[in-house]
Design goal:
Oligomer: single chain
Family: Belongs to the MYBBP1A family.
Region (Disordered): 1-25, 704-727, 916-948, 1154-1337
Largest sheet: 3 strands, mixed
Biased composition (Basic and acidic residues): 713-725, 1157-1168
Strand content: under 5%
Strand order of the largest sheet: 2-1-3
GO biological process, one term: positive regulation of anoikis
Subcellular location: Nucleus
Helix content: 55-70%
Number of strands: 7
Shape: flat
Number of helices: 60
Length: 1337
């Protein structure tokens, strides 16, 4: 904007001159555009965009003080106009921007702004259709003045704004209570003196008017708080909580609740009434009569939500003595009913909002634990027939102070021991009241529900304390749960505090089961990742060790405490041996410390389970102790031969059976412990132990698995059973009627007597009852089988944890190889029946273990021992199974398994010892090894087609330095693979893939095989080459071409061939591809089109290989075949879908030295450019361009002939040539590329004969003698009668373009401008130019 000042001071006649416009004009337009865009962005619905536009507008006005006044006036006018736009979402945006503008520029008077608003949106002159936008414009204008923060300081503007708001309040149909709310908000910010002066004008001296609306009442409460003397002088003494005013207060609060129904917030008038009642000491009257007996009786949910919000807001304001009044009345009971009944998804739930109120209260009074405890206990006492309505996991408990938390845990324990049902705020829903069942209202049911909730709340409290490390409190809760799960008191003793706890209601067995399950959940929480408690146990013992010590203490006090299930002598001996084993594990060496810790945790867990199931756990303890003793004295075993020795003790198998038994229990803690223990003992795993794990995944070995397999057909079986039952019922019904028929074909007309009818009714009743029982029995059996299937699948998912640990911890173990086929069987079965979510989980986990942890693992077995032959048989079996699958995705798993075994066989140390490495000679490479050559240095001029010139036989890259020993490429690539055994396997699979109509094998499978095992790829290439042509289907020919196209450029495959073999292979493939290209362009089906595309792609790959390695391959036949098919691939005769085929064709022709001709349409468009003279274009444009451009044109006029003469004359200067001479020069030169004929590059002494072979581009560039067929290639003959230049043409002339492309680019631009003069001329000058053309003959 600073550039506008000098621009405006320019002379008026400056615009009339022919010179250029002022430079500031474009910048001014850009800044104005930017300034105007601010107002568009202010009205956008995105808040960030609005705020950013407002900030930019203010920064724009501040940064330009010289134009800020003018722009500020326009901005003010624009914002005032925007207050009354029709879009409702844009009005608040303009109001906010206006407030920010007035706040930033305090020199703008508010009275003038308010006057502009009233003049722009005059309510007296506005039309009826625009009344509503005008009303809102005035309202948002006053709000903008208030939000600027200057309104309360300007008394004149304040009085005018108050008067305007009073006028707007009369239009209740449009604005409703918004003007009154704005008035209250404004007056709440003004000083007391100003409010005292304005109060008589805004508040009527009538109590009925005050209690008529929430806004007037709120204004009254504001005045009573800030200017009570003035209010008393105006209205007199007022008691709002009198008997006659309470109904009015209830109606006002109901109206306020309805007004904030959408906003879901607490009205300010309700909170002001609450504070007024607390100041005047009338809170009990307000709460009882206004809230509970007034609003709650209205049966209006917005009023109920207002009461709930009032309860949450009142918590910080109440004392400990006032809290019971609000937490034990009808309101808190109504809140509990809402918590129970609000279960539908679309139904509004107040619980999250109440949690925020309680959390804010607890955070705000952490220094007052008594009030914290009182509130939390009060909410816990809200029960529905004994069951608290709050969830067992309540996040706000984390905000309790340590003292309050300890008191809350003590209250929960006391409630569990001696429930006080009278202190509960209990209720029943309407549906529960309708059910007149005496068992639902008994105290026993309420006590059971309360105790169940309390024990779960204790466990969840410990879960929240787990991060706070309150070890004493955690231990107290754990001891409490353990004692009441498995023990009972005979005689109290001070040594065991739990024995002094007495029950007011006896503890039922079902309650102990709940406590037991909660205890093991607590054990899972405190034992996560073997969590230690350094503050309590300096030696770092786990949490379970404390519980074992506590259990041993309880067992030693048999006079005071007795287990619920007393131990036998054998069980007690098992417990004592376990303690002895634990002491031995603690004394282990540092090397076995990790394994000892895992066994220790397992002993702790099984020892605690001894109290839950003594018989089973006693046997497990004995077996575990035996396994521990043997495992700590054994060394790791890794080879299969050692694992199969009969002297191996079976302790690993026993331990695996124990872990499987633990995994069968639905406990996450058991699952974690089993994983940890198995990770330490999997190194000792034997084939028999592994088979125990695999039997779980095999349905044939599992018990009763056949029933589970046929459950999918059980519905049909049940239907057929019902049909048979109906038939049997008809026969039985006939028997019940005395042998007569049932279809109404009774021959006799005799009627049955009463006794016979009664007997018949009894028989029919018994028959139908029996039939009903049979149907129910079938349904029960079906549900039983379904549940068994669910449990079995869940058990299999858990057992997969052990397999995952094995392949992760011991990937080099030979036993891992035995996992391939069992995992594949699980994947195959799950893919067939993956209907349920559990089946999908099993499939996903198995596939993840197989793919990521097994096949893609960096480590694998390097010593398979004597099982080498079995691995080759397994590879053959897997490849055959991959070809038999019905789905390619399933076949991929089998093929990947075969590739994994090939990887193992390749790196097998047993077989790899046959090929010993030889030392590398110091002087030169090995004679039989492929030669390695480095690229030549880059020449001064750039290479053609962007490729570097390499010497022959350069397919082998430079080896890395530092390698002292090398094998031959074939031996190094094959490793320990026996190609005589592997090649027939994959050869048959490849043949099947290239011959079968529907094969599950795919191209990426074999490409993966070729890239990983190039030596095997070398053996399989003849099979692929055989199917490129011949009797194979077009689809299979295309697949064979794709395989060759992707495999040939690989470096690893090239290393497997000697130079003569490689040239022979390329020639053989080229012959096959040439045979395919004879029918190019004749494709009718989609597969034939794909075959043509693949053949051309393979040809381009071959040509690229030939050029890069400079192989001596005859390309004459390929060039002849391609040229013979050129007419079929013309763009005019082909469809648009075959453009890719044309592109591949000309890519191959370009590699053979033939450039693609230009299209006719493009040549026709370039004709005027060639024929038009640049000099005539300059004359035609003279006088029409600006003066600043004419000087540049003179420079170009002299420079163009010099540039033009450089490529044509070897030396000397030539005069500037005209357009005619250049055209004659182009005509004299030979044709560029007619019908795909190669362009001339330099003159040659002899012409090219038709039998001469094609040359590669590199050989053309160097002009070296060709080695194809021993003949020397020649260039086409030069045109007669024309002297050819002796100097080489630049590279731009080599790309196949005509010599006209060497013209200067600036000349081309001039000719283009001369052909379109209307782009640079005005209307009058255009007319003059047309008259001049008309005068010419």
């Amino acid at each position: 904007m600073e550039s506008r000042v000098p621009a405006e001071s320019a002379s008026p006649g400056g615009a009339a001159t022919s010179g250029p416009r002022p430079a500031d004009r474009e910048g001014l337009l850009q800044q104005s555009r930017e300034f105007l865009d601010f107002f568009w962005d202010i009205a956008k619905p995105e808040q960030e965009t609005r705020l950013e536009a407002t900030e930019k507008l203010l920064a724009y006005l501040r940064a330009r003080p010289q134009v800020g006044a003018r722009r500020g006036k326009y901005a003010l006018k624009r914002l005032i106009t925007g207050l009354g736009v029709g879009r409702e979402t844009a009005r608040p945006c303009y109001s906010l921007a206006l407030a920010q503008l007035l706040q930033s520029f305090e020199d703008i008077p508010l009275c003038s702004v308010l006057q502009q608003i009233q003049e722009k949106h005059d309510l007296q002159k506005v039309k009826k259709a625009m009344m509503r936008p005008a009303l809102f414009a005035n309202l948002f204008g006053v709000l903008a003045l208030f939000q600027s923060g200057r309104l309360v300081k300007d008394s004149e503007a304040l009085l005018k704004s108050v008067k305007l708001l009073q006028n707007l309040a009369q239009h209740h149909n449009h604005l409703q209570e918004q003007p009154q709310k704005a008035l209250v908000d404004i007056l709440s910010e003004v000083p007391a003196a100003t409010l005292q002066a304005i109060l008589p004008k805004v508040l009527k001296a009538d109590l009925n008017s005050v209690l008529g609306s929430p806004e007037h009442l709120e204004l009254f409460l504001l005045a009573q708080q800030k200017v009570p003397e003035k209010l008393k002088e105006l209205i007199g003494p007022v008691n709002l909580f009198s008997d006659e005013n309470i109904p009015r207060l209830v109606n006002v609060l109901k109206t306020a609740a309805a007004s904030v129904k959408k906003e879901r917030k607490l009205p300010a008038v309700a909170l002001d009434l609450l504070r007024l009642s607390l100041r005047e000491g009338k809170f009990p009257r307000f709460w009882k009569e206004v809230v509970e007996q007034g609003l709650l009786k209205k049966q209006f949910w917005p009023a109920s939500y207002l009461c709930f919000r009032l309860l949450g807001a009142a918590l910080p304001l109440l004392s400990e003595e006032q809290l019971p009044l609000v937490m034990q009345g009808d309101l808190i009971r109504h809140f509990g009913e809402h918590m129970v009944t609000a279960k539908l998804p679309k139904q509004f739930k107040f619980a999250p909002e109440m949690n925020e109120y309680v959390g804010a209260f607890l955070e705000g009074c952490r220094d007052d634990p008594e009030r914290q405890l009182a509130v939390v206990v009060a909410f816990t006492r809200i029960t529905n027939q004994g069951l608290p309505v709050l969830p067992t996991f309540w996040r706000v408990v984390r905000s309790l102070s340590p003292h309050a938390l300890k008191g809350y845990v003590a209250w929960l324990q006391t409630t569990f021991l001696r429930p006080d049902l009278d202190s509960l705020v209990d209720f029943s829903t309407s549906n529960q009241k309708k059910a007149q069942d005496a068992s639902l209202h008994g105290p026993e049911r309420a006590v059971f529900r309360l105790r169940k909730w309390v024990i779960l709340r204790l466990v969840s409290t410990v879960d929240a304390l787990h991060a706070e490390k309150e070890d004493d409190l955690i231990e107290e809760v754990a001891r409490f749960c353990f004692f009441h799960s498995f023990f009972e008191t005979k005689k109290p003793t001070s040594q065991i505090p739990e024995t002094e706890q007495q029950f007011s209601f006896p503890l039922e067995s079902r309650t102990r089961e709940v406590v037991s399950s909660a205890f093991f959940s607590l054990l899972q929480t405190v034992s996560t990742q073997f969590r230690l408690a350094p503050a309590r146990t300096p030696d770092g013992q786990p949490w379970t060790h404390r519980l074992v010590q506590f259990a041993d203490l309880l067992l030693s006090h048999s006079r005071n405490v007795t287990p619920l299930t007393p131990f036998t002598t054998q069980q007690r001996q098992a417990w004592d041996r376990m303690l002895q084993t634990l002491k031995e594990l603690e004394a282990c060496s540092a090397e076995a410390k990790a394994k000892a810790s895992a066994f220790q945790h397992l002993l702790f867990l099984v020892g605690i389970y001894l109290f839950k199931s003594p018989a089973e756990s006693c046997e497990l303890l004995a077996d575990i102790q035996t396994c521990i003793q043997k495992s700590l004295g054994e060394k790791p075993r890794r080879t299969r031969s050692k694992a199969a020795t009969p002297q191996e003790p079976p302790w690993v198998e026993v331990l695996v059976e124990i872990l499987l038994a633990l995994l069968a229990q639905p406990s996450h803690l058991m699952r974690q412990v089993a994983r940890t223990v198995f990770s330490h003992v999997c190194v000792h795993l034997t084939p028999r132990a592994l088979q125990l794990i695999l039997d779980v995944l095999n349905p044939e070995k599992s018990a009763d698995e056949d029933n589970v397999v046929v459950t999918d057909d059980s519905e049909k079986q049940s239907e057929s059973g019902e049909v048979r039952a109906r038939r049997g019922g008809r026969v039985d019904m006939g028997w019940a009627t005395g042998g007569g028929t049932v279809d109404g074909e009774d021959d006799g007309d005799e009627e049955l007597g009463d006794e016979a009818m009664m007997a018949l009714d009894q028989n029919l009743a018994s028959l139908f009852a029996e039939q009903k029982l049979r149907i129910q029995a079938r349904r029960d059996e079906k549900n039983k089988l379904r549940k068994e299937k669910v449990l079995r699948r869940d058990f299999q998912i858990r057992v997969l944890d052990l397999i995952e640990v094995l392949v992760t911890k011991q990937p080099e173990n030979p036993l891992v190889l035995e996992l391939l086929e069992p995992l594949l069987d699980v994947i195959r079965r799950s893919m067939r029946t993956s209907s349920s979510k559990q089946e999908q989980d099993l499939l996903h986990k198995t596939a993840r273990i197989f793919t990521h942890h097994l096949c893609r693992s960096r480590h694998y077995c390097h010593d398979v021992g004597r099982g080498l032959g079995a691995l080759y048989a397994q590879v053959e079996r897997l490849v055959q199974q991959a070809g038999r699958q019905a789905d390619a995705s399933l076949s991929l798993y089998y093929f990947n398994a075969a590739l994994y075994l090939l990887r193992v066989l390749k790196g097998n140390s047993t077989a790899a010892t046959v090929c010993k490495p030889q030392k590398k000679e110091k002087a030169g490479p090995k004679p039989g090894a492929p030669k390695v050559s480095r690229p030549r240095p880059r020449k001064s001029r750039p290479q053609e087609r962007g490729c570097r010139v390499m010497e022959r036989k350069t397919a082998v890259p430079v080896p890395l330095p530092g390698i002292t020993q090398l094998l031959s490429p074939v031996a190094q690539a094959s490793g320990g693979l026996d190609l005589s055994l592997v090649t027939p396997i994959f050869s048959s699979a490849l043949t099947s893939f290239l011959t079968k109509r529907n094969s599950p094998l795919t191209v990426p499978m074999f490409l993966s095989l070729f890239s990983r095992h190039p030596v095997l790829c070398k053996s399989l290439l003849p099979v692929v080459i055989q199917h490129v042509t011949g009797q194979a289907r077009p689809r299979h020919q295309a697949q064979a071409c794709v395989l060759l196209q992707k495999a040939l450029p690989t470096r690893e495959l090239r290393l497997c061939f000697e130079d003569p073999e490689w040239e022979q292979l390329v020639s053989q493939i080229l012959v096959k591809v040439t045979e395919n290209l004879r029918t190019l362009g004749e494709a009718q089906s989609k597969s034939e089109q794909q075959q043509e595309l693949s053949s051309l792609g393979l040809l381009n790959t071959l040509l690229r290989t030939i050029h890069q390695e400079k192989l001596t391959v005859d390309l004459t036949g390929v060039l002849g075949v391609l040229q013979s098919q050129q007419q079929r691939l013309q763009p005019g005769g082909r469809s648009a879908s075959c453009s890719r085929l044309c592109n591949l064709y000309w890519q191959a022709m370009k590699a053979l030295g033939v450039q693609r001709p230009k299209s006719e349409k493009k040549e026709a468009r370039e004709v005027p450019k060639v024929t038009q003279s640049p000099l005539s274009a300059k004359r035609k444009k003279k006088g029409f361009l600006p003066e600043t451009k004419k000087r540049k044109k003179r420079k170009l006029e002299g420079a163009a002939p010099a540039e033009e003469a450089k490529p044509t004359a070897p030396g000397g200067d030539q005069p500037p040539s005209t357009g005619k001479r250049r055209r004659r020069k182009r005509k004299a030169q030979g044709p560029t590329q007619a019908n795909g004929t190669p362009a001339t590059k330099r003159p040659a002494p002899e012409a090219m004969t038709p039998s001469a072979p094609a040359k590669t581009p590199k050989l053309q560039e160097k002009q070296q003698p060709s080695q194809v067929n021993g003949a020397r290639a020649a260039s086409p003959a030069a045109p007669a009668g024309r002297k050819q230049p002796q100097k080489d043409l630049p590279e731009k002339g080599v790309s196949g373009k005509s010599p006209q492309s060497a013209l200067p680019r600036k000349k081309a631009r001039l000719s283009l401008a001369s052909r379109s003069p209307t782009l640079l001329q005005s209307g009058a000058k255009r007319k003059k130019a047309s008259l001049k053309k008309a005068r010419k003959p």
